[in-house]
Amino acid sequence: MTNEALAGQIAAAVLAEMRREAPAPADPVSQKEAQPPGQTASGELMAAMKKSTSARIGVGRAGARLQTRTMLRLRADHAAARDAVLLDVSQGLLDRLQLPALQSCCASQTEFLTRPDLGRCLPEEGRKALQKLQTAPCDVLIFLADGLSSRAIEANAENLLPVLLDGVKAQGLTVGTAFFVRYGRVALMDQVAALTGARVVCVLIGERPGLGSAESMSAYLAYEPRTGMPEANRTVVSNIYSGGLAAVEAGAYIAELIGTIHKAGASGVQLRERGEYDLAIKR
Q: What is the structure's pLDDT at 22?
């Protein structure tokens, strides 16, 4: 069975489901060649496709509209995405993880959403508080930021952070005090490195939620980040959530990746150019 034949068969099945019609009969010769045993009905093909993706495919319709069940799920997922952006990370989680809390230069959620530049820096009191936390330079500094999804931090941080910290310390690297930044953006790591002298900085941040998941978190890592550095010099591990990369597994992998970055003295495309990133993935 060729890829082209299978793609054509799947496309015909999808169109048939959308139109609520039976698929047009295929040529007997080509059907015998392209169709595997046991998958003679379009419904079976559609069921197999639905199992392979979280995308909303083959949902059907009621007249010109979506079915009620589909519409309700869309509205529920949209509400979850809005909550992820607008709600704060709970103080209870910060207390359990023993994370001191700082705040970026943004005074409110509205300002955070409309002024990305203010989410990339700390105010004067925040800079002083950070320097009190980190009294000496360290090899690795890890902090969390709500970013665009507080739910991502709530859902993943408690399982990921302890594994990550243990994994980094097991490599003999010195680790600074982890902390949390409210209304923080990725590039805040540049100022954090300048204030603390950390060689490798890792920020765990909530990603922009979608209708597939509102709990996806990413880890951005950089070797000696600085203001104005190219974004290509950051390494990212994304899609950390229950339906993607599991939090515990992500913690172990990020710890190993931090060790690779520290040893190579590079991150982002520079790390890939040296062949270190691919080696870390293979391990």
A: 42
pLDDT value, residue 65: 84
Structural domain spans, the chain: 1-58, 84-282
Q: How confident is the model at residue 164 (pLDDT cuts 50, 70, 90)?
A: very high
Topology of domain 84-282, CATH: Rossmann fold (3.40.50)
- Three-state SS string across the chain, please? CCHHHHHHHHHHHHHHHHHCCCCCCCCHHHHHHHCCCCCCCHHHHHHHHHHCCCCCCCCCCECCECCHHHHHHHHHHHHHHHHHHHCCCCHHHHHHHCCCEEECCCCCHHHHHHCHHHHHCCCHHHHHHHHHHCCCCCCEEEEEECCCCHHHHHHHHHHHHHHHHHHHHCCCCCECCCEEEECCCCCHHHHHHHHHCCCEEEEEEECCCCCCCCCCEEEEEEECCCCCCCHHHCEEEEEECCCCECHHHHHHHHHHHHHHHHHHCCCCHHHHHCCHHHHHHHC
pTM: 0.76
